[in-house]
TrEMBL record:
SUPFAM superfamilies xrefs: Immunoglobulin
Organism of origin: Aldrovandia affinis
Name assigned to this protein: Immunoglobulin domain-containing protein
Annotated Immunoglobulin domain residues: 31-139, 142-229
Cited Gene3D superfamilies: Immunoglobulins (2.60.40.10)
Keyword terms, alphabetized: Signal
Signal peptide limits: 1-27
UniProt key word Signal: yes
Domain of life (superkingdom): Eukaryota
């Protein structure tokens, strides 16, 4: 039991402290894999009644979620504990927990959240009972985008953890920083910050390249591969598409002449 929850819990919680030291239950099956993307929210499934053999079913058992690095979330009655790095981002719905649903809601996913999560419940007069294990995999975002000259490029930041945006042109050997959180504008007024987005106005041919949104550790939250088409190129592509459509229509008519009558 975590000390923070131990101090705040009721006296009955104190009786469970020794039970936490003796854990005779262990994972007996491979973990469930859950995949999500950085910045999203995810639910790690858990149901403690599926493993409960005590009759009658205990009221308000003590719930623990943890990873190999430490405690993530603990709950006993009204008492709550949120682990370091998880404050304000984790929750178990109390109205569902009484019915057996101990699923953990994790918001604003970070790459550092990727881990093996294990859930346990403890009830008075019983040992610490393993409920389940979930392996969380956190992925980045990848996009390909094609714009015409003059159109805006909207870059999604996805998460409050977004710290830097870098750009590497098609022929460039190195990247350059075009935006940094809490820093001056480096785009000569072309970048506008919105709600978790950056808008680059009036893209040019030289704006073609790779844009990366990085977190404070330098990991890529998202990667956008942008191609900007000039007026002639866009017009030529539209003409080719029209010709292709006409050829397909003519082929259909010749292969099914009865459609003319």
């Amino acid at each position: 039991m975590h000390r923070g929850l131990y101090r705040r819990g009721r006296s009955s919680v104190q009786c469970l402290f020794l039970l936490c030291l003796a854990d005779f239950s262990a994972p007996s099956s491979p973990p469930l894999y859950v995949f999500s993307h950085v910045g999203h929210e995810v639910t790690l499934p858990c149901n403690w009644t599926s493993r409960m053999v005590v009759s009658p079913r205990p009221q308000s058992p003590y719930l623990q979620w943890h990873t190999p690095k430490g405690s993530v979330f603990e709950m006993k009655g009204e008492a709550r504990y949120e682990g370091r790095g998880y404050k304000g981002r984790v929750q178990v719905a109390p109205w569902r927990f009484e019915g057996g649903d101990c699923s953990l809601l994790l918001r604003e996913l970070r790459f550092s959240d990727a881990a093996l999560y294990e859930s346990f419940v403890i009830v008075e007069g019983s040992m610490r009972l393993f409920i389940g294990a979930v392996r969380l995999v956190v992925r980045d975002h990848k996009y390909r985008q094609q714009l015409r000259e003059g159109e805006p490029l909207v870059l999604k930041l996805h998460t409050p953890q977004a710290a830097t945006v870098i750009f590497q042109g098609g022929n460039a050997t190195e990247s350059e920083v075009i935006w940094q959180k809490n820093s001056r504008d480096r785009s000569q007024g072309r970048l506008t910050k919105g709600d978790r987005i950056l808008t680059l106005s009036g893209v040019r041919l030289e704006d073609s390249g790779i844009y990366k949104v990085l977190d404070p550790q330098g990991l890529a939250v998202s990667t956008v591969n942008l191609k900007v088409e000039g007026g002639r190129e866009a017009h030529s592509r539209a003409c080719r598409a029209s010709i292709t459509s006409l050829v397909m229509a003519a082929s259909l008519l010749f292969s099914h002449p009865h459609v003319l009558f």
